[in-house]
Specification:
677 residues; alpha/beta; MetI-like fold; 4-stranded antiparallel β-sheet; 25 helices; 12 strands; 12% strand
Length: 677
Amino acid sequence: MAIAEISTDDAIVAARPTRGSRFAWMRAFRHGGTLVGLIVTSFFIVLAIIGPYIAPYDPAAVSYDYLQPPSAAHWFGTTQTGQDVFSQVLEGARISVVVGVAAAVIAVFLSILVGITAGFLGGVTDDLLSMLANIFLVIPSLPLTVILIAYLPRSGSLGVTLVIAITGWAWGARVLRSQTLSLRRRDFVEAARATGERTSAIIFRDILPNQLAIIAASFLGTVTGAILAQAGIAFLGLADVTEYSWGTILYWAQTSNALLGGAWWWFVPAGLAIALLGTGLSLVNFGIDEFINPRLRLAGIGTRRAQRAMAKRPRVKKAPGTRVIRGAAAPFTQESSDVLLEVRGLRVEYGSEHASTVAVNDVSFSLRRGEVIGIAGESGSGKSTLAYAITRLHKPPASITAGQLLYTRADGTVVDVLGLSEEELRRFRWEELSIVFQSAMNALNPIMKIGEQIDDVLRAHRPDMPEADRKARVIELLDLVGIREDRVNAYPHELSGGMRQRAMIAIGLALDPEVIVMDEPTTALDVVIQRQIVEKIMELKDRLGFAVIFITHDLSLLIELSDTIAVMYAGRIVEIAEAQEFYRRPAHPYSRGLLGSFPTLGGERRELTGIPGSPPDLRALPSGCAFAPRCPLVQDRCRVAMPPLTKVAVEIGMRPTEARCVIYETSDSSERVVEAV
């Protein structure tokens, strides 16, 4: 295989982490306080492991050295029965730390299970799980703990661990649920759904990693709280006081009036150990966000060394025969008849308990191979809803209530996309049709490297593809959109807006789709970067032969980029025409108003007219033509019925313009209307 023989070694070299990235986790502890916290915490963990083995005495052994202060024989002094306090502290470290960590593990697991499940699934599941968490939140934890401990008098440390976990998970679940509700609406989660990722994969690869900082902080906080709770339970005598822990040491010191008797050495070491461990855990918590958040990883230890290593990394050599992208297609012309996607009478509604709102209504058009069709219109006209309907990424309460999406495969077979099952749709997306979302910073997963996100698409749809081939393909795709291969390990925030948008295009091209839906891909980019993105799209379209549905507010951009332009208003297409014909002679009054809103860079100066009024409320559309209240050419019959799309006479050899206006209903009105607009 050419790919395996030529590209494998170089791809592995290019993807191999540098020394700086391999030890990037050390940057989490570059602050002195965090490093101290790590040392203190590690010390007590080691003490919990080896403490019972290095204790100089049996902690339960009595002697005649009653209430002796610290000395060479007894470092922490003795109790009133001559027991060695130092040995008891060493023995007690194990139970205190183990109970704290075990309770935190169980509590955080329950928090993740309940919080993320409720937030991601929503609906009745969310209501029930949220109600359960609220019940535990409103019940005072201390009385609940005491009651549960009372019913488990002989359970020892295991019972205490379970009680602390059961009473301590609800707050973390609420926090994780609220974060999940925010994340599940992010574009990178929608992108994962579009690539065909299963729900479980989205949760574990997109939702869960983005909450690691919260989970880690919750875990450390729960460990601290559990250690304090165990000490408090033991101090009150509710735990098994025959098991040595720091809490039971304090319990026996209190019952023996050590404080009144001046035996400070009996209670100070255990209390100090609890305080030091809690402080250490809190200090470690300060470094968690820097380790999890890739925005903060560039600063600190090893940054310049890692950047120098990245710059020196060898470039991957390309060789003939390694491409897996299909060859260039013939340039698109208006005479092309190779229909790739046909949309017929598409209708999308947003339903509620009382009524439904039609966001896309009776939309029909044909997309031919290699064609760029631009969708224009004001905000709320239904452009993005149309894009999500074509890719079947709409979510409840949105639903497609009518129409067909007929896609013609390479072998000539025609399939209705609306009739595909979930598994068939998963294979269809990205293989045949992909989408490039607007706002690339939100569409890209912020904690995953660019190369990993492209690789995700390949793994989801090419599970048998060797890892080395995937790495080579990732580098090839980045090179295809003009991103250097040394950015394969960059995070989204390390790229400029234009590079992020190019990365999104690379993800869309990963599986060589025949159709790419681009939902305002140049939003929030300056005009120079917009020009670069448009040129790159045109270059790739001509090179690879795919078709594009390009959605934007920018008519000037559409006229330059598109072969055909469809204008939407109030959920309907009101005009569809060849781009140059649309620019020279817009047929619909709304199209004229849109063009009149853009200034010209050359020619005579003219006054910008715009469109008076505001877009209509889709919940209460006027009768007849929805544009009638704003139309300068309105007639009485405009308010009676919605006119159909009517062909307008154009030059021979050009695609006929279609407009939805009553003035085209008579054969002699076409010239008059064109002159009027």
